[in-house]
UniProtKB/TrEMBL annotation:
This is YIP1 family protein. Keywords: Membrane, Transmembrane, Transmembrane helix. The lineage of its organism: Bacteria, Pseudomonadati, Pseudomonadota, Gammaproteobacteria, Enterobacterales. It is found in: Membrane. It holds the Pfam family Yip1.
Length: 195
């Protein structure tokens, strides 16, 4: 958790600090990912069960507590899996580099890069659809910036190579993000029938 502010305020310095640590995946999940992934889940649970999704024009869709809890658990597990998948993607993308980090280091890196997406979940306390989409888009752009800043440090490559690597990784990350969103929407749509 001590890297959150640094990643948002001075990411270049923070990436160097993260690289110096030899953090294990279990430590990283326990001290960063599990807590950060809880932010959007808890905020969405509160927002959707207390206020309801604001679809505009006075339309609100409110979930009951049991449905919100079930969907929250599924959403949480999907986010944890998404970090692990992106760690594997980064590891696979780095296969041609001489200083290729191990899959554990790649997963840790993916967890830190996802920090803006986790923090953006705060907006779900007031679940206005257009506002949530706008904040998620800004968080996704900043995540791309963290990739661009962090990849040269992480893989010891130059900035030009980093732009290609981070662009490709971000494209795959956006695909994973969209799959997670699609699964969440499908589950949210069928959630009242499931729970």
């Amino acid at each position: 958790m001590n890297h959150v502010w640094g990643l948002l305020a001075h990411p270049n310095q923070e990436m160097h600090a993260i690289k110096q640590e030899n953090e294990s995946v279990s430590h990283h999940y326990t001290h960063h990912v599990l807590m950060m992934a809880a932010i959007p889940v808890i905020c969405a649970f509160i927002g959707t069960t207390q206020l309801g999704w604001n679809l505009g024009e006075g339309q609100y869709v409110q979930l009951n507590v049991l449905t919100g809890l079930g969907l929250g658990i599924i959403f949480y597990l999907l986010m944890l899996g998404g970090v692990a998948v992106m760690g594997r993607v980064i590891h696979w993308m780095a296969r041609d580099y001489p200083q290729r980090p191990g899959i554990q280091r790649c997963t840790v890196f993916a967890g830190y890069v996802a920090t803006p997406l986790f923090v953006s979940g705060l907006v779900a306390l007031y679940p206005l659809v257009w506002l949530c989409v706008m904040v998620a888009a800004v968080a996704l752009v900043y995540t791309g910036y963290l990739l661009y800043v962090g990849i040269p440090v992480f893989l010891n490559i130059d900035r030009d190579e980093s732009l290609r690597f981070s662009g490709s990784t971000l494209a795959i990350g956006v695909l994973v993000f969209e799959v997670l969103l699609a699964l969440t929407v499908v589950l949210w749509g069928y959630g009242p029938r499931l729970f």
